[in-house]
Amino acid sequence: NKWVQEKKTKKHSEEFLTRGLWSKSRHPNYFGEVTLWTGIAALAGGVLVSNVGQMGIGLAGGPLGTAAALAMAGVSPAFVSLLLFKVSGIPMSEGKYDKRYGDRKDYQEWKKNTPMFFPKF
User: Fold this and answer.
1) Which residues are within 8 A (CB) of 117 and not within 5 positions of it... i.e. 6 or more apart?
2) CA angle (9, 13, 16) in 5-degree steps
3) pLDDT, tens digit (0-9, with 9 covering 90-100), for 44-99
4) By CB count within 10 A, which of 21, 33, 35, 120 is most buried?
5) What letter does residue 116 receive in the DSSP assignment?
6) DSSP 3-state percent helix, strand, coil across the chain (nearest 5)
7) What is the pLDDT of residues 14-54, one digit of tens each?
8) Are residues 118 and 81 in contact, defined by beta-carbon separation less than 8 angstroms?
9) CA 41, CA 71: separation in Å to the nearest integer?
């Protein structure tokens, strides 16, 4: 395939990724992770707000049960986002690459022109 041929000719020998998804976002993998968990939460929330869903998890229904069910569904994407934005994901990755490539002009340019999380299309 084309990518393998380009890799053999050292076209893909860059030390940090600046093409493909990494030209749209500095952390497209983390964006995908949060999007995945948000999608799962949205689907689960749709089930949990139904009477059957609320009875299945032991809630009585009504507005309070609906709010509790939605809160339960939202915990996972909120927690993943917190970890990726503040604890282990983006801060560690940015720090590692800033230390390794921070003095390079091409890295600084890529970092300045590429959104950190939400892709630009």
Assistant:
1) 25, 26, 27, 30, 31, 85, 90
2) 155
3) 999 988 888 888 888 887 888 899 999 999 999 999 999 999 999 999 999 999 99
4) 33
5) S
6) 70, 0, 30
7) 777 888 899 999 999 999 999 999 999 999 999 988 888 88
8) no
9) 10
Instruction: Using CB atoms within 10 Å of the CB of residue 84, give its burial: 0 to 12 exposed, 13 to 18 middle, 19+ buried.
Output: buried
Q: What is the mean pLDDT of the chain?
A: 91
Other Cβ atoms closer than 10 A to 6: 12
Look up residue 106 and give its two tokens: 């091409």
State how far the Cα of 121 lies from the Cα of 115, in Å rounded to an integer.
11
Sequential DSSP letters for 20-42: GGGGT-S-HHHHHHHHHHHHHHH
The radius of gyration of the chain's CA atoms, rounded to the nearest angstrom, is 20
